[in-house]
Predict the structure.
Amino acid sequence: MQRGTDPPAGRALTLGTRSQTIAFVVLVIALAVAPFFTYPLFLMEFMCFALFALAFNLLIGYVGLLSFGHALYFGWASYLSAYAAKSWGLSPELSILVGTATAAVLGAIAGSLAIRRQGIYFAMITLALAQMMYFVALRVKFTGGEDGIQTVPRGHLFGVVNLSNDMAMYFLVLVIFLGGFLLIHRIIHSPFGEVLKAIRENELRTISLGYKVDRYKLMAFVLSATLAGLAGATKALVVQIASLTDVYWPMSGEVVLMTLVGGLGTVFGPIVGSFVILSMQYKLAWMGQWVLVIQGVIFVACVLLFRRGLVGELAHWLRIRL
Amino acid sequence: MATIFGIPLMALFGQLLIGLINGSFYALLSLGLAVIFGMLNIINFAHGALYMLGAVTAYLLLNYAGIGYWPALIIAPIVIGVLGMVIERLLLQWLYKLDHLYGLLLTFGLALILEGVARNYLGTAGLPYSLPDSLRGGHNLGFMYLPNYRAWVIAVSLVVCFGTWFAIERTRLGANLRAATENPTLVRALGINVPRMITLTYGFGVALAAFAGVMAAPIYNVSPNMGSELIIVVFAVVVIGGMGSILGAIFSGFGLGVVEGLTKVFYPEASSTVIFVVMAVVLLVRPGGLFGRRA
């Protein structure tokens, strides 16, 4: 697959390059002031999707595994988080934790099945398992079937901060998003992350070097599912609803699209990609079903013309890493 | 009335029949996927959408041109097959040297485009397609009632499936095809036009999907999302059967259709998930798939 070039050997284990540091600082400042200029709700949703795409990118970009079923972790975490907040009356931080833990468990089960096959089969298995859990979500009672779980209370963070205030909620989401981003950044620049990249480049050779490749893949899968779950669990509190849309296959496709548009295997690509796709959906909502067609065209165009994605192309053009 | 394990025999055979019908479609689609994957190294996500277009073509032919079921059974696969060949020449041929995953991503995009366009013009609700007069009615077999159309669908898919198997495994054309799958460069050196063969293979695989679509039109309603639901199940069938063998695709298609039908009788709640559960079990017990070589 097409990916960004790797850092010079000497700095492989440091926290990225200077261009990445600058981009990160710009991102933090932009997100800190943005809610004073535009709708916090849109920005919160964007950060949830960006974290979702970052989690997905951890697998495709750094291990070379295409999961076509990431809606499973996003959507189920969202259901459990909403249910915990509404029916069990748990505080928001615990609800998010419940949702995230659910995603971790589901990720461990689905991951241990999916890594038994490589390449294209891996994608088909993850998609099939996600579809199975969609049918389960449709059947079981607590998800509310077609209605979903509505009017989820945001509650009080640690019993103190009232999150029904959009600004308070915004900064909680910002902290979760940045925390997730830094964690992923830390993972891909750790010795563990280096092994993942080795698997991506040449799995057989990594095995012959004595690494238990399956364990590394499973670990990466669980981490990715957990972070996708964190995004979904947070989103359930942001939009105060958990519904079938979030566990259905188009959602899995959407996160692939976001990452592809931004740039597979780039640090900032998934963030840019989710911003572009989400803005497009908002702006073009009036076009109804044509949005689906436009997304399809973007998919085809990305695969044929810009396999590096927006951020990947920019980085290539400026000869920096992003 | 006779019962078995407390289930009326009528219901059992009825569901078995529905299972065989669904199995016919699984077999036809997974067969097409396997043939395409063999030559193009691409998992054709658009297969479901092209199946749907087959049904839509039959619907449009009937309602706007007055062309009935029988001609549609020939015309729709040809039209969609040609569309497939155009798609292969315009889009897919640039992907052969890249990672497999790009093929999946591009055809997924294609599926979104086709489904989106269909939804815009047909709406999301199903459109009815009436049975041809010659296949109405049915026979009472004593233990069950067998509608003629259903018997026809099962018989025809069996013939088409085994015809395809015969063409690929037992004819000279098929031998060339298999050789080109193994080693395209060498086969080209022997003077066989491999790129044209690839285009025709894609066209054929897609035509099979469209053929299945026309046959499905009178049974299920013609609706834009009929393909995307089906293709995911077919992916699970392909994972179970493995794509290495044509017969494997046929057997697992029909077999899983029957398993699904039986589940509807004994434990209806699980009928929509049973194929995925079987897939999970197969992955645990025989990770390479029932008929496939380890991929």
About this structure: Chain B has eleven helices and four strands.
